[in-house]
Design brief:
- There is one protein chain.
- It is globular and about 85 Å long.
- By secondary structure, the protein is α+β, with helices and mostly antiparallel strands.
- The longest helix is centred in the first third of the chain and has 18 residues, at 10-27.
- The chain has helices spanning 10-27, 67-81, 91-94, 105-109, 135-139, 156-170, 174-183, 224-227, 233-245, 253-259, 268-273, 327-341, 357-360, and strands at 31-38, 41-49, 62-63, 203-205, 212-214, 230-231, 275-277, 282-286, 289-298, 301-308, 313-319, 364-368, 371-377, 383-387, 395-399, 404-407, 416-421, 427-432, 435-438.
Length: 461
Amino acid sequence: MTTPQDELLPGTRRALLHRIAVAQAEGRAPSLVAAVVRDGRTVWHGARTSVDGHAPDENVQYRIGSITKTFTAVLVLRLRDEGVLDLDDPLEKHLPGTGVGDVSIAELLAHTGGLAAETPGPWWERTPGSLRPELADVLGDRDAPHPTGRRFHYSNPGYTVLGALVEQLRAAPWAEVLRREVLEPLRLHRTSVHALAPAAGGWAVHPWADVMLPEPAEDFGRMAPAGQLWSTSGDLARFAAFLARGDERVLSAETLREMGTPAAPAGPADLADGASYGLGLQIQHRDGRLLVGHSGSVPGFLATLTVGVADDVAAVVLANCTSGPLTSQVAADLVGIVAEAEPRIPEPWRPLREVDSSVMELAGQWYWGTSPVALRVTADGLLSLGPLSGGGRRSRFRPNGDGTWTGLEGYYAGELLQAERRTDGSVDHLDLGSFVFTRQPYEKGAAVPGGVDPAGWRGIG
């Protein structure tokens, strides 16, 4: 008997259920729901609840807090991809009069604009948004606590400003733009600004007694782009698949990779934790695994969506309590359970359909000084350069169509690789951002800067 490849094995499903059962029990959550996505489709859903005989399914709404920021970032990146704005543009160019107009759009997305973490009092998550009807009420009148662009400092008002930017450039309310440009194309019909039944109630659980208190469900008003949304584990699973693969109707996979690339300088504590921030996405290294997504919390609710990039496995965890289960850790564990129990089956190796002889001439072993490296021509039409063994600089290079190649990652990202040829057309050496790679270490006759000693290699004597 075989199991279809798009289904999880019984042992994996039980391990997933056990993990969320422990999280709900030890975290004392009134309810907890979770979903797992593999290869772009939902393969598991689970729930635990304190109510006998009833458990929330994938269509029950929970507040998702700051996962809303990722939705807002998607709207901003759409504007960039359309050429309406540039991420380096100062805010003042498109949204004048805020008082923080020297901050760039990229800095707002990456939380490096120096803005305060929260609004002036009272506590915005537990009071009506009508108390802060204008951006000035959100930003306050005190100076920014940090220099612009110098450090990562999470800012809820910063994403409120980005929501106002979207409204200004689309000439429509943020919620309407979100529905039209993201929710409808991705079929996220159970994601909304206000709760749609069935929806979980938010609770505070007493820290020293097994009793609960209902939390208010305020409309955040102007602060909505920072944390207003309600959603379901089913919808967020579909959104996770989008974040992993892209959808040309909304954002390309290339732009989503850009969102998941570190854009903010990490502080010492974040470095120790393996955490950084991109453009609307949190980035973590846990147990040797790169995870990209976002967490969220508002009074009464906890939420996490995370994507294991290399494994193409994502997890969503939602709970209706102010504190308790560590949803970020639970979601990372769910990804790890599936990735380790059922490792991703790679696509079959396939050769290139055709390859230019001038490209094949570059393949093989080269030397940067005395360090041997290998240059390979890969089936995706790229070049791959890296050390023959051990650690060292590695990068892939895409062709530019003129015989040169551009680095895609690591130290050589954006750097130009080109083959320098002799008068007879043969390759003399490779030039990579002025570094010279030769077929032999310090090859005689090659154009090595500084020259090569004419006496050649020698021993001691």
